[in-house]
Design goal:
The structure holds two protein chains of two kinds. By secondary structure, chain A is of the alpha+beta class. Chain A is built from four helices and six strands. In chain A, β2 (about 30-35) and β3 (about 40-45) form a beta hairpin. The radius of gyration of chain A is 18 Å and the shape is globular. By secondary structure, chain B is of the alpha/beta class. In chain B, β1 (about 5) and β2 form a beta hairpin. Classes of the chains: A alpha+beta, B alpha/beta.
Chain lengths: ~160, ~200
C-alpha cells in the first residue's frame, strides 16, 4: 500500500503565505518548502532562475544523508544545516520531521536574521503540516478522483 | 510515497532503479534522458565518482502527460550498486512508489545479482515495505553479450514471484522504455486502488 501525502488548496495557500512572509522578513533571495522525499511543495521569491526540481531532490538527498549520519551517532536528527557560499548562502531546516524549509540569501541578509525568522515560520508551518497530514489520512479511506482512472487513461499516457 | 497536489493538480511518484554494480541502472536513465522531449524532462543529475561510478544517486524528473486533468510526474532515481554503499541505498528507497530491479545477464554476475536482490528485499523491509506488494518489475540487461545466460535461468533465479520482466540492451535502448512504462503503469494502478 502506498502512503500518500495529499495537498489541498487551503493548506497550500497557508504554506505559500508562510513562505512569502519569511521571504520578506528575512530579506531572502528565495524560500523553498520541500517534502523529505524530494518533491517541491512551495516557494517564494526569486525562483524563476532556480532549478527548483533539482534543488529539491539534492536537498532531500543531503538531508537524508545527514539524517543517516545522525542515526550513526545516536542523534535523533540534525535539525539544521548552513551552506555558506561566496554569493549565496543556503539555510536548511527540518520542520515537523516532515518537510524541509530552505532559505537562500545573500549579503542583503544575515544568518542571525534568517535563523530568527525561520524559527517563527517553522512554528507556523508545523501547525499547517499537522492539518495536512490529518486530512491526507482521513482522505485515504474515501474514494478519490483516481479511483475512476481506467486502464485506457493509463495506456493513453504512453501513446507517443 | 506519492504526493498528490490538488491545488496545482499534480501527481508526483518516485521510481527507484536497483541492482548490482555496473548492471546498467545509470545507462537506463541516460537513455531515457536522451530520448525524451526537452519539455517533458528536467535536468538529469548524477552524483558520481571521478570514474563515473554512482556515488549517491542519479535523478531524472520526467513528465508523462495528464491523466484526468492531473499532470503526472515521475522522479526516477538510481541507487549506487556497489556493495559498500548500502547506507546510501537505504536512504534512496525512502518514499519509493515503484521499483525496477536491473539484473546483469552475464553468468559471472549472477552472484552479485542475487546478493543485490536480497539486499533490495531486506532494505525495503527495513523501511516498512514489502517487495511483493510494491509496484515492481524486473529488467534483464546486457542481453547482447556473448556470456549472457538463458532467460529461463535468470527468471528462475531472480524473479520467483513472476512479476513483469523485460530483456534489455540499455545503451541501445532495447527494453528501456518497456520497463519504464510497465513500472509507471503499476504505480498508477496502485494509486487507483486508493493507495
Amino acid at each position: 500500500m502506498i502512503q500518500q501525502l495529499v495537498m489541498y488548496e487551503e493548506e497550500l495557500q497557508q504554506i505559500n503565505r508562510i513562505c512569502e512572509t519569511l521571504h520578506r522578513d528575512s530579506n531572502a533571495r528565495a524560500v523553498l518548502v520541500i517534502d523529505k522525499n524530494g518533491q517541491a511543495i512551495a516557494s517564494a521569491g526569486d525562483v524563476q532562475e532556480l532549478d527548483v526540481t533539482s534543488l529539491s531532490s539534492l536537498t532531500a538527498g543531503n538531508v537524508a544523508a545527514t539524517g543517516g549520519i545522525a542515526s550513526l551517532l545516536a542523534e535523533k536528527e540534525f535539525a539544521g544545516q548552513f551552506l555558506e557560499g561566496e554569493k549565496t548562502n543556503y539555510h536548511i531546516s527540518i520542520v515537523g520531521q516532515r518537510v524541509i524549509l530552505v532559505v537562500l540569501f545573500d549579503e542583503r541578509s544575515s544568518l542571525g536574521l534568517v535563523r530568527l525568522r525561520v524559527r517563527k515560520a517553522a512554528a507556523e508551518l508545523t501547525v499547517t503540516l499537522e492539518v495536512m497530514v490529518r486530512k491526507s489520512a482521513a482522505g485515504s479511506g474515501q474514494p478519490s478522483v483516481f479511483s475512476e482512472i481506467t486502464d485506457d487513461d493509463i495506456d493513453n499516457l504512453f501513446n507517443d | 510515497m506519492s504526493f498528490i497536489n490538488y491545488s496545482s493538480r499534480e501527481i508526483n511518484c518516485k521510481i527507484v532503479y536497483y541492482g548490482p554494480g555496473l548492471c546498467g541502472k545509470t545507462t537506463n536513465l541516460q537513455y531515457i534522458y536522451n530520448k525524451t522531449n526537452p519539455e517533458a524532462k528536467g535536468k538529469m543529475i548524477s552524483l558520481a565518482t571521478e570514474t563515473e561510478r554512482t556515488l549517491f544517486f542519479d535523478f531524472l524528473p520526467l513528465s508523462l502527460g495528464e491523466i484526468r486533468g492531473f499532470k503526472t510526474r515521475f522522479h526516477l532515481y538510481t541507487v549506487p550498486g556497489q556493495v559498500f554503499y548500502d547506507a546510501s541505498r537505504k536512504l534512496i528507497l525512502k518514499g519509493v512508489d515503484g521499483v525496477v530491479y536491473v539484473g546483469d545477464s552475464q553468468l559471472e554476475r549472477m552472484e552479485a545479482n542475487i546478493e543485490s536482490l536480497e539486499n533490495l528485499s531486506s532494505n525495503l523491509q527495513e523501511q516498512g515495505y514489502d517487495l511483493n506488494k510494491l509496484p515492481y518489475v524486473v529488467q534483464y540487461n546486457k542481453r547482447d553479450l556473448p556470456n549472457a545466460i538463458p532467460l529461463a535461468e535468470l527468471e528462475e533465479a531472480l524473479n520467483p514471484t513472476k512479476v513483469p520482466s523485460y530483456e534489455a540492451v540499455a545503451p541501445k535502448g532495447i527494453g528501456v522504455f518497456d520497463t519504464l512504462k510497465a513500472v509507471a503503469k503499476l504505480v498508477l494502478t496502485e494509486l487507483r486502488k486508493g493507495g
